[in-house]
Amino acid sequence: MSMEFALSLEREFDVVIGLETHVQMSTNTKLFCSCKVEFASSPNTNVCPVCLAHPGSLPVMNRKAVEYAVKTAIALNCKVHNLAIMARKNYFYPDLPKGYQISQYDRPLATDGWIKIKTQDDYKKVRIHRLHIEEDAGKTIHEGSYSYVDLNRAGTPLMEIVTEPDISSPEEARQYLEKLRLIMRYIGVSDADMEKGQLRCDVNISLKPKGTSQLGTKVELKNINSFRFIVKAIEYEIERQSKLLMKGEKIIQETRLFDHNTGKTYTMRTKEEAHDYRYFPDPDLLPIVIKEEIIEEIKKELPELPDRKVERYITDLGLPEYDATVLVSDRDLALFFEESLKFYPEAPKQTANWILNELLGKLNDRGIEINRSPVKPSQLAQLVRLVQEGTISGKIGKEVFDQIFETSKDPADIVEEKGLKQISDEEQIRQIVKVVLEKYPAEVQKYREGNSKLIGFFVGQIMKETKGKANPAVVNKILQEELR
Predict the structure, then answer these.
(1) How far apart are CA 218 and CA 254, in angstroms?
(2) Measured distance CA(2)–CA(189) in Å, rounded
(3) In this predicted model, what pLDDT tens digit does every residue of 117-160 receive, in sequence order?
(4) Are 277 and 263 in contact (CB under 8 A)?
(5) C-alpha distances in angstroms, 225 versus 54, 256, 258, 424?
(6) Is the pTM of this model over 0.90?
(7) Which of 12, 29, 321, 423 lies 20 to 30 angstroms, CA to CA, from 452?
């Protein structure tokens, strides 16, 4: 999208985006039977009469899935309803063995929530219209002129989380989805891995004349499997719709697919309305009754959520907002940081610096996840302590860190083996300073004549003499004294 076109679009239209996100819950078994939920199993091996819809088979609700859904609803600030009803959503597709999907319609599990996202200028609440439970369909695989159906996924427990049309840009959509995924991982209800289909998103997008309240005709985008492609699909669709509207043409309500190879969306089918699915309560399943005491119990089990953790890191630990946000952006990274502080709580800012600047850099270069780091939290804490207490210098600390990463040895052992302890004895350093100053009389004279930049040269020579082991603060103090 050209800058000129983007500015024209901004003057003419408001972008209105709503997201429908399906999150696969991390239960061991499916929603209505005891078949395993397992990624990449051989086709049609995790199936039974219930998920294959054999005549006479009856569904039984997975209690853990309901608990996970309630937990999610609380984390998303939703109102959890005491009564929820499962409904049949009727449509035909080869990977839907029953000819209907068991979902929820007019009595969902939860409504009226929100997620806070960071926009370009401030923070914004994206309202959540509803959260409900439903089963997944199977998977259709197309190879040349043949199509195959794998029903391993049929019956997998899903949560559908539907926003209000509060999102105004592709970037806000990405922010919302990343925050949603982060919350799912923090509370342990889903890994929300898009590559494995554990988090799938449909985008509803429309344009309306600038400043008006009447919403435009919405188009649904499907088949988007990464945050980057979601941004690209929305950008393309905004441009497509705006060009049609500028020419006086109408937008057709339809479902479109995004092709990441071309970066374009294509018509899939005209959009159905709710009545097309002929929803009605499933006669084989009892209503879900959720008592207030159960809601309160689940609420107590919730861990500290990302927003609260960022706030605590800033307020209680004195971290900059950027550092706190990066640490919290990965649950395992935040756990590593907090575990390190248990061993040495006196220097949270310095500990964060070592993790963000040294550890993450090396892990990213090697493609290693933080939970498989060769440097343990206790070792990082020990290293920070050695530097903070002046046993080794920061420069030597980086050498020690490299050794820990390669050998997994404790920093104290490395310092001892290699004789890396920092020299802080003033008399010893004074003798070295005198040797250096006697070696460079011309530079000493220039310094005394006003060339103060030479102080760096002298410090460098002293550090060279001590192989970097001299305490920089003591060096500077004695050097100033001797030069005077």
Answers:
(1) 8
(2) 41
(3) 988 778 999 999 999 999 999 999 989 999 999 999 999 999 99
(4) no
(5) 32, 14, 10, 57
(6) no
(7) 423
